[in-house]
Write the C-alpha cells for this entry.
Amino acid sequence: MYLTKEEEKILDGEYGEIKEKMFRILVVIGDIYGADRMIPVSSCQISGVSYKSIGEYGLEFLESISEKGARVVVPSYLNPAGVDLKLWKQLGYPENFARKQMRIVRAFRKMGIYPTLTCTPYLIGNIPRFGEHLAWAESSAVSFANSVIGARTNREGAISALASSICGVTPNYGLHLEENRKPDVIVNINTELNEISDFGLLGYYLGRVLKNRIPYLRGIKFATTDHLKALGAAMAATGSIALYHVEDLTPEARNFKLENLEKFSVDEEELKEEKERFSGEDLDAVMIGCPHASLNEIKEISALVKGKKLRKPLWIFTSRFVKKLSVDTGLSRIIEKAGGKIISDTCMVVSPIEEMGFKVVGVNSGKAANYLPNLCGCRVVFGSLKELIEMII
C-alpha cells in the first residue's frame, strides 16, 4: 500500500505513540483487504460506546488513550451509550453501570468527539454529500449513508472508526470503490409495504436470506426516510448488508446494468410467515426507536396515545436533538401524559434492560427483533406502531 511521506512520519512515531498505533491499525486493515492507499474522510461515527458492549477493558483503554493525548482531527460522532445520561436514575438504570458509562463518555469527549450518542447522525445535521468518504461504524448508519445518501463507507469496527477519527483517513477498499457498489441480486417485492414495521420485517427477512450481498429492490413504489432507515437497519442486523439499491428511489439505482443478475421474489406469504416467528405473549413494555426515532415517528406515536392511559411502559428512544424538538412542539407532553417516556442517549439494545425486569418487549423494528433476544435475553412481539400501542392500552 502506498503511503505518503506524512503517513510514513506517523508510522515512525513523529506524531506520538497513540497516533502511530492507530495508524498501524489502519495499515494492517488496508493490507488485509488490498487497499492501494489511504483516503481522507470527512467524518467518523464511532460505535463501542455502551459499557454493556465494551466492558471494563474497553473503559480502561479509552481512558488510557485520552489521558495520553489522543485527539480527533475530523468531525466525529458517538453511537448510543448504555443509559440516558440525564434520566438514568429516574428510569431505574443500575447505578454502577451508569457511573462507568459516564466515564466512557467523558473519555470520548476529552478526545474531541461530539457526544451525540445517536445511531442516526443524519437526523441531527451530520448529512454527508453524495460520494463523500466516511468512516462510520454503526451498521444502520452505514447502510443509510451508503444507500439513501450515496456516500461511501465500509462497515467499520469501533476501533477502526476511532483510528480514522484520530488519523483522518481510511484504507481505500470495499465500498469506497465504485466497482464494489454494484448490485449482485435483483429482489422483486410483490407485496404492499405501508408501515415502518413492514419495511423492518422485509429487511429482517432479506438480511437472513442474502447475508452480505448487495440487493437491487424492485416493486417498492413509495418509501419515506423512516421506511428506508428501518429497511436498511434490519438487513444490516440479520445479515451484514451495508448497501442496497431501490429502483427509482435511491441515488445510485440507475447507475448499473442489471443483465444476468440472479432474481428472486418476496411475496406477502413470506413476510407473514416471518412475522409469525415472533411471540404473541403478554408484553412487559413497548420500545420504539431502533434506530433512533425521528420527529415524524414521535408525532405518529403521540397521535396514537393522545387522551389515553397506557397500562404498560412505552419507551421511545431518540437523539437528544430530536427529543428537544419533541418538547418544543408539545409532542412529548402528550406522550408523557399518557404514561410514555422519551429517552435519549441510549437504546433498548445497548442498555441493560434485562437487569431492569423487561422480559417480553414489543417492537416495530427488524433490527431490535434480531438483537433483543441475542443481546438482552428478551423475547419479542413484533407489530406496527398501532398494533403495539393497542396491546398496552
